[in-house]
Amino acid sequence: MSLDSPKEPAIELVGIDKKFGTVHANKNINLTVAKGSIHGIIGENGAGKSTLMSILYGFYQADHGEIRISGKPVTIRDSQAAIAAGIGMVHQHFMLVENFTVLENVMLGAEGGQLLAKGVASARKELKRLEDDYGLEVDPDAVIEELPVGSQQRVEILKALYRGAEILILDEPTGVLTPPEADHLFKVLRVLRDQGKTIILITHKLREIMAITDTVSVMRRGEMVATRKTAETTVEELAELMVGRRVLLRVEKGAANPGAVLMSVRNLTVKDSRGVTMVDNVSFDVRAGEIVGIAGVAGNGQSELLEAIAGIRKPSSGEILIGGKPAAGIDPAGLRDLGLAHIPEDRHHMGLVLKFEEYENSILGYHRDPRYGRGPLLDLDAMRKDAEEKIGKYDIRPPNPRLRTANFSGGNQQKIVVAREIERDPKMLIIGQPTRGVDIGAIEFIHKRIIEMRDAGKAVLLVSVELDEIRSLSDRILVMFAGKIVGEKSSEAGEQTLGLMMAGIAA
Amino acid sequence: MSTASVPLPAWINYGLIPVLNLILAFFFSGLVVWAIGESPFEALQLLLIGALGRGEGIGFTLFYTTSFIFTGLSVAVAIHAGLFNIGSEGQAYLGGLGAALVALAMDRYVPWYVTMPFAVIGAALFGAACAAIPAWLQAKRGSHIVITTIMFNFIVSSLMNYMLVRLLIVPGKMAPETRTFLPGGQLPKLDWLIAAFGGKIGAAPLNFSFLIALIMCFLVWVLIWRTKLGYEMRTLGISPTAASYAGIRYSKIVMITMLISGGLAGMMALNPVMGASARLQIEFVGGAGFVGIAVSLMGRNHPAGIILAALLFGILYQGGAELSFDMPGITRDMIVVIQGMVILFAGALEYMLRPSIVRLYQQLTGK
Fold it and tell me: How far apart are CA B241 and CA A374, in angstroms?
C-alpha cells in the first residue's frame, strides 16, 4: 500500500482460497476495494462471487488468505463479527420479517435491553436521521408485506446502516426491481458513496456495472481474472473476460413469418391457493412461426399464466385453446399429446428431479411413451441411448447419463430440460425464464435453439424477467402488470417505454 | 456445501456406515449389559448362538425375518412415493382376517397349495382395504397419512377384538381365536431348507411364506426401478412439483401406492396365522408393523437392504429371547432396550457418523 494512493482501501482480500470437496470455488483471490467507491464484481454463475462474499460476511471460513478492513487484518467467524467490522449485506432474497413494521425489522437483533420502549424511541430517532442523511424515505410504521419490493430493499439497506455498516455488499440487487426502481436504487447508492460508504455490487448484468460502478472486477472459474476502471472498459471486453472467449450479445434472427393461430388465451383468470387473483382477464394469441414475449417484473402473474396454459394450475375462468381445441382442464400429460412442450421457470423444482440420474430426467413427462418401454415396464437401455443422443446434440457436460442431475451445472441442467422438450418436435412451446442462472455460453446456445423452433414454424410463448432477453428474442412483446396485460409493443420498443409499462405507469 | 451432498462410493454408503452404526449400537448395548452386572461378551455370544447356533434357532430367526420383510417392504414402497405409512401394524392385523377367512372356507376341501394363492390375495386385499381409507383421505382431503394410519391401527385393533370375541371364537372356548385350520389351510414348514444346511428345524415355525416374502422383494424391486408406475412414484416422492409438471396425478399415485403398501403389510399375516399357529389369534402381529419402519430405514428402502435389516432384527428377536432365558439378569425388557439401540443408531442416527467419514474420505483420497 503506497502512502500517496488517493483513497485508502476499505477492504483488502489477500490470497483467499476456498475448496468445497472437489470444487475449488476461490483460487488465490486478491482484491482491493477503495474507500468511498462502488466496486462491481461480475462473473457467471458458479464463478465464485457468492462464495467470496460469503467468506467476507462470515458464512464460510477461507482455507487460506487474509481479510484486511481499513488496513487491519481481521478474522470474521460469523455474521456478528462481520457487522462488528462494519460490513453490511443486502441479500438477493430479503431477510425481513414480513408482518413486522419497518422499525421493528430495523431494530431486530439490536433491541437494546429487555424492555422495548426505550429502544424503540432511540431507534426511531436514529432511523429518521439515516433516512434524512441518505434520502432513503420509508414510513417506519409501515408493515413490510404491504410495501413494494423497492421499499423493502431500502429497509434492508437501512438495517445495515443502522448497525453501523461502512461497507455494504449488495447481491444481485436489481433482480426483483422494475427499471424505475433500479434507477432509484442507483441514486441511493451514489448518495451513500458520496457520503463515504464503500459499496460492493455483485451482479451478472453488464449494463448495471457500466451504469453505476467506479471499478469492476471479473471472476471466472474461481479466479479473479481482471480488475478495470469502469470508465476505461466496455461491455464487450467484460463479457469476453467473463466467458473467456468472444460472445455474441445480440441474437441474430431474420424476420418472423407468422402463420395460423396455434395457441389462444381468452379472458383467462387464475387465482393462487389463497384465492388472490394473479392473472386477471387476459387474452392473446400466439401464431405458428412467431415468438411472443411476456415482459414484466417477477410476481405479476406470469408464472401463474404459464402454469395455467401448461395444465398445472386450474384457471378459475376463461378459455385456453390449443390448436383450436379447448384445453382448460386437460392435464399436462394430455397437453403434451396435443403437441405442447413446456420449459418451466423453475428447473430445480419443476423441470427436473435433481436426485434422479440424468437419463431418468430426460424422459420426465414423456415416460409413458412406448419408445421407453412396452406396457408397464421401462426399457432402461432405450432410455439411456436416447439420453446419450441428446447429450451429444446439446453438448451437455459431463456427457454421462448416469450422473446425478444435481451434479450438473445450472447451464447444463437447463440444457437437459431444453433438449427434452425441443427434441420431441412439439407444435407449441411455452418457456419460462429460459436462461435464469445459466452461463453466457449456454445462453447463446439456448437462444439459438428457440429461434430455430420459431423458424421451423412452431408457436413460441416466452416469459422472462430479463428485459434484454425478451427484446432480443420476441417478435411481439406483451407487458404484464398486476395480472393484466397492459399493452403490446413490437420488439423495437425502447427499454424506457417497456420499463414504464412494467411499472404500471404508462400504457 | 454441506457434507450430506458429497457423493461417497457405494461400499461406504451401504456397507461401512451401516456396519459402523451397528458396532456403535452393540457397544452401547454392551455398556447397559455391563452396568447391570452381566458380561457383555457372554451376552453377545449367547445371543448369536441362540439365533444362529442350531437349526431350530435359525428356523425361528428366519420366521421373524419373514414377518419383518413383509412389513419392511410395506413401509419402503410408501416411502418411495413420499408417504410415511405408520399403519403397517393394523394393515397386517386386518390382513390376518383375510387370510383366516380364506383358510376357514377352503381348508376342508382342497390341499394347501390350492388355498395358498387365495389366502395371499385375501390377506393382501384386507391389508389394502385397511390402507384405502387413509389413502383416500390423503389424496382427496389432504388429511395427513401419518395421523390417519396411526388412528387406523386402533380402529383395526378394536374391530379384530370384536370379531374374535364375538364372531370367530369357537363356541364354548375361552380363548379369543378361531378354530385350528386343517392342513388344507396351513402353510408347510420349510424343514427341507434347514435340512439342506444340515440342521434340524425342530419346533421352529419357519414356513412357506418365507419364500413368498423373497418373491415379493423381487417384485417390489421391479416395481420401483423397472416400471413406469415406479418411476411416477419416485418422481412424486422426491418432487411433487416436478410430478405435477410431468402430468403425474397425485391422488392416483397416492391411492395405488398405499394399496400396494397395505397389501404387502397384509401378506405378513400369512406367516404367523397360516404358517405358525394355524389359527387367527388376538394381537398376533405383536409389533412387527412398527419394526418394519426400522427395517425399511436401515435397509435404505431397497429390497436387498430390507432382507439384511429384517435378518438382523430376526436375530435380535430370536437371540434376545434365548438370552433372557439363559441370563437371569437380562429380562425381556432389556432386549427391547438393545433393539431400541439398534434402531436409534442404525436407523435414526444415519447422519451422525457421515460428516466425519466424508472428511476422512476426502483426506485419504486427496480431494
Answer: 26
Q: How many residues does chain B have?
A: 367
Provide the edge-to-edge strand list for the sheet that holds A290-295.
Answer: A340-343, A428-432, A459-463, A290-295, A476-481, A484-490
Shortest Cα distance, chain B CAs vs residue A67, angstroms: 22
C-beta separation of A5 from A64 below 8 A: no
Which chain B residues are Cβ-neighbours of A344 within 8 angstroms? 245
Residue A78, all three cell numbers: 460469523
- A232 phi, psi to nearest 5 deg: -105, 10
Shortest alpha-carbon distance between residue A311 and chain B (Å): 8
More confident residue, A27 or B2: A27
User: B228, B238, B256, B301: which to substitute to probe chain A, counting the most A Cβ within 10 Å?
Assistant: B228
Is B246 in Cβ contact with A333 (below 8 Å)? yes
A282 membership: H or E segment, kind and range: strand A277-287
Interface test with chain B among A336, A378, A403, A430, by most B beta carbons within 10 Å: A378
Q: What residue in B sits closest to A383 (Cα-Cα)?
A: B226
Grid coordinates of A306: 404459464
pLDDT tens-digit series, residues B298-321:
888 999 999 999 999 999 999 988
Check residue B357 and give its pLDDT: 82
> What number of residues does chain A have?
507
Supply the pLDDT for residue B313: 92
**The predicted structure's pLDDT at residue A361:** 96
Q: At what angle do helices A410-422 and A380-393 cross, to 10 degrees?
A: 110
Of A477, A418, A488, nearest in space to A453 by CA: A418
ipTM: 0.85
Q: What is the pLDDT of residue A2?
A: 39
Residue whose cell numbers read 389462444: A264
Strand partners for A18: A26
Site of grid cell 437483533: A109
The pLDDT > 70 percentage for chain A reads: 96
Q: How far is CA B220 from CA A142, A490, B5, B118, B230, in A?
A: 57, 56, 27, 20, 9
Domain boundaries, chain B: 64-314
Instruction: Please indicate whether residue A99 or residue A249 has the higher confidence score (pLDDT).
Output: A99
Task: Closest CB to B242: pick one of A20, A331, A349.
Answer: A349
- Name the residue type at position B20: L
Candidates A108, A129, A131; CA nearest to A120 is A108
Domains of chain A: 1-86+166-244 (3.40.50.300), 97-163 (no CATH), 253-338+427-507 (3.40.50.300), 340-425 (no CATH)
**B12: pLDDT confidence band, cut at 50, 70 and 90?**
confident
Beta-carbon contacts below 8 Å between A and B: 78
Name the more confident of A114 and A450.
Answer: A450
B359: which residues sit within 8 A by CB, 6+ positions away?
A: B3
* CA pair distance A198, A215, nearest whole angstrom: 12
Q: From residue A92, give the alpha-carbon distance in Å to each of A169, A173, A203.
A: 10, 6, 10
What CATH code is assigned to B64-314?
Answer: 1.10.3470
pLDDT tens sequence across B174-232: 889 999 999 999 999 999 998 988 888 888 999 999 999 999 999 999 999 999 999 99
Among B1, B234, B244, select the one facing A20 at the smallest CB separation.
B1
Write the secondary structure of A112-143 as one string of H (helix), E (strand) and C (coil). CCCCHHHHHHHHHHHHHHHHHHHCCCCCCCCE
The CA distance from A339 to A341, in Å, is 6
Cell numbers at A400, concatenated: 454421462
Structure confidence by residue, pLDDT tens digits, A193-246: 998 999 999 987 788 888 899 999 999 888 999 999 999 998 888 888 887 777
Mean pLDDT value across chain B? 91
Q: Are A293 and A462 in contact (CB under 8 A)?
A: yes
Query: Considering the entire predicted model, what is its pTM?
Result: 0.81
